Amino acid sequence: MTRAPIAVIAALCLASPALAQPAHPRVGVIVDLAANVSDERATELGSALADALQRELDVDAIGGADVARRLPPAGVPDECVAEPRCVAELAARLDASELLFLAIVQVGTTVQVDATWASVATGQVVARPRVELPADARAGEVFAAAAKRLLPDAAPREAIVTTAPVVVGPSRHLTRGTWIAGGLGIAALAAGTGFGLSARGTYDRCERDPDTCDAGTRSGITTRARVADAMFIGAIAGIATAAILYLRSDRESAPAKAQAWRVAPTRHGAMAEFRVEF
Question: pTM to 2 decimals?
Answer without folding.
Answer: 0.53
